[in-house]
Write a structure and sequence with these properties.
The complex is a heterodimer. By secondary structure, chain A is mostly helical. In chain A, 50% of the residues lie in helices and 8% in strands. Chain A contains 11 helices and 5 strands; from the N terminus they run αααααααββαββαααβ. In chain A, the strands form 2 sheets. In chain A, strands 2-3-4 form a 3-stranded antiparallel β-sheet. A two-stranded antiparallel ribbon of chain A has the order 1-5. In chain A, β3 and β4 form a beta hairpin. In chain A, α2 crosses α3 and α9 packs antiparallel against α10. In chain B, the strands form 3 sheets. Chain B has an 8-stranded parallel beta barrel with strand order 1-2-3-4-7-8-9-12, surrounded by 4 helices. Chain B has a two-stranded antiparallel ribbon with strand order 5-6. Chain B has a two-stranded antiparallel ribbon with strand order 10-11. Chain B contains 9 helices and 12 strands. The two termini of chain B are 30 Å apart. Chain B is of the alpha/beta class. Chain B has one domain: Divalent-metal-dependent TIM barrel enzymes (TIM Barrel), CATH 3.20.20.150. Classes of the chains: A mainly alpha, B alpha/beta. Chains A and B meet through α1 and α2 of A and α2, β5, β6, α4 and β11 of B.
Chain lengths: 256, 291
């Protein structure tokens, strides 16, 4: 009689690697292969469903057959080690980047990063948004020295490919070439809806510098260097009222 | 929820899944409780948790886990237990459960999740590992938990106990409650060739804190037919019959209808809930008439 450790090890190898060592552990009624196949299918189908939900753009770009092949390879390479699969798939963009068969679709990596950012934003931690009223009272010096943080659900993406357009039209863009054109995107979930916004390059510079922990003054400088004509105040006010900034924990405003 | 495996009302509820959440918040059906998969709420923030807050304001909750892997040779994951405990503190569920099954490969071979409720060999070793892990689950959460009897497609050679004794021994040694899934009994009995009525008759009825009902599918292969526990259709007549037999032994027990694939409109699910409720009502009327 095999130990539980041996049985569970062989069972997992049977599901992931297709090893048939587990079959001799099963009761011999001539149907062991069909019986074990149910378990193998359940694992692969359920993980495929999890990743298809998390990566709708990648699935639309690849089509079902190729996407299934990608997932099968990914499960073998990086199976989930967590007890639930809400976090599973974080490594898929890097896996795509290393995939030789997908090297002729270089935009796919950033599409996967965008999908993952949206997936992560949905369940990200909450944070109290920075209020515009508090800032209106501040002197210019103090305002420029402020270091607003982005809320936990926020991800900035800078791609050499038009990832916002690809995300919007993934169903139509699956076939054929996509011409390189840089696009920058902010993914966030200020309230209950995940937002995916196309950013002006100067706007991206502003937010990136803030995310790096620098002051509003330094962020404004970076934005102006990117595009001197850019209307910085309007962009900042827009993001502020959309609720994507929060106070750093050591910078809570004094309660009145 | 201390001391007993459940403080759910002895009425019929259903497994609340994502497509119905907003519907149920907007137009709460006339039921007392719903069940959710604990793992679906293991997120730091966002709409899922806020929606569950809204659900909790109106209904009692049962937390039904699918990820603790109580049948694994390894002890339950501490981080996972902490997440369950935090959810229990926030949402104060009336019942907490998981399965007689394993989900994760042994840590020694990498610990990958197979994301499915996998079968255990009916051995003394497996019973004592299950009992150890269930006790760890109870200690970490401060709750008496329930474990669900498995649905199985394959049995292991070299069994030391039969399938019914395996469940009964596990529950007895762990000191936990039993979540009696009558669809699982029907599915496993067909697939493994044992007598469903005999298995049911040997369950520890005083430990049953909740009953599960669900639909299953049939899949033909070269050697015969396997019943697949897909929770994707109405409860079959054969399972309703088993349910009546179970109720005759347990008395009125909180009963849940599960539907997880090909999820229908809420009305279809609620009709199944009403069927279960009418059987619970008939049981109570019968008890009154007899006393």
């Amino acid at each position: 009689m095999s130990t539980l450790l041996e049985i569970q090890s062989r069972f997992a190898a049977g599901v992931f690697q297709g090893a048939d060592g587990i079959l001799s552990d099963l009761e011999d009624d001539g149907r062991q292969v069909a019986r074990f196949e149910v378990y193998r299918n359940n694992t692969h189908a359920s993980i495929l469903e999890v990743l298809a939900d998390a990566f709708p753009t990648v699935q639309a770009l690849l089509g079902e057959t190729l996407f299934t092949r990608l997932v099968t390879a990914f499960i073998r390479h990086a199976p989930s080690r967590a007890n639930h699969l809400l976090d599973y798939g974080a490594e898929l963009p890097d896996f795509i980047a290393l995939s030789e068969p997908l090297a002729d679709r270089p935009w796919l990596v950033d599409a996967a990063r965008l999908d993952w950012a949206r997936n992560a934003a949905y369940g990200a931690a909450e944070a109290a948004p920075m209020g515009a009223e508090a800032l209106q009272e501040m002197a210019a010096d103090a305002l420029l020295a402020l270091r607003p943080a982005l809320i936990p659900s926020a991800t900035l993406l800078h791609s050499d490919w038009p990832i916002h357009a690809i995300w919007m039209n993934a169903d139509a863009m699956g076939e054929g070439e996509i011409a390189p054109r840089a696009e920058m995107v902010l993914v966030s979930r200020p309230e209950m809806q995940v937002q995916t916004s196309l950013l002006h390059p100067a706007e991206h510079a502003l937010l990136q510098v803030l995310q790096d922990g620098e002051t509003l003054g330094e962020a404004a400088l970076a934005a102006q260097q990117t595009d001197p004509a850019f209307d910085l105040m309007t962009a900042f006010a827009g993001h502020l009222s959309a609720g994507i900034f929060t106070h750093r924990s050591n910078e809570e405003p004094k309660q009145a | 929820m201390k001391g007993t495996a459940t403080s759910l009302p002895p009425t019929a509820g259903f497994g609340l899944r994502h497509p119905h959440v907003l519907d149920v918040i907007d137009r709460p059906p006339a039921i007392d409780w719903v069940e959710v998969h604990t793992e679906n709420y293991m997120v730091p923030g966002g709409p899922r948790l806020r929606q569950l807050d809204a659900i909790r304001e109106r209904f009692e909750l049962s937390f039904h886990g699918v990820g603790l892997s109580l049948g694994s040779v390894d002890e339950p994951d501490r981080a996972h237990l902490t997440r369950i405990r935090d959810l229990v503190r926030r949402f104060r569920p009336a019942a907490l459960s998981d399965h007689i099954a394993w989900v994760r490969a042994p840590a020694q071979v990498g610990g990958a999740s197979l994301n499915d409720l996998l079968p255990l060999p009916c051995t003394e070793e497996a019973v004592s590992i299950l009992a150890r892990n269930i006790r760890i689950f109870q200690d970490a959460t401060g709750c008496q938990v329930m474990v669900e009897n498995p649905s199985m497609y394959a049995a292991f050679a070299g069994a030391e106990l039969d399938h019914a004794d395996f469940v009964t021994e596990t529950v007895r040694r762990a000191g936990c409650g039993l979540l009696l899934d009558v669809n699982n009994i029907h599915v496993s009995a067909h697939n493994l060739g044992f007598d469903a009525n005999d298995y049911l008759a040997r369950m520890p009825f005083d430990a049953v804190g909740e009953i599960h009902l669900a639909g299953h599918a049939e899949r033909a292969d070269a050697g015969g037919t396997l019943l697949i526990d897909d929770h994707g259709s109405r409860v079959r007549d054969s399972v309703w019959t088993l349910y009546d037999q179970a109720l005759a032994a347990t008395g009125a027990v909180p009963t849940l209808v599960e539907w997880d694939t090909e999820i229908p409109e809420l009305g279809v699910l609620l009709a199944e809930v009403r069927t279960a409720q009418s059987r619970l009502d008939a049981l109570r009327a019968g008890t009154r008439a007899a006393s």
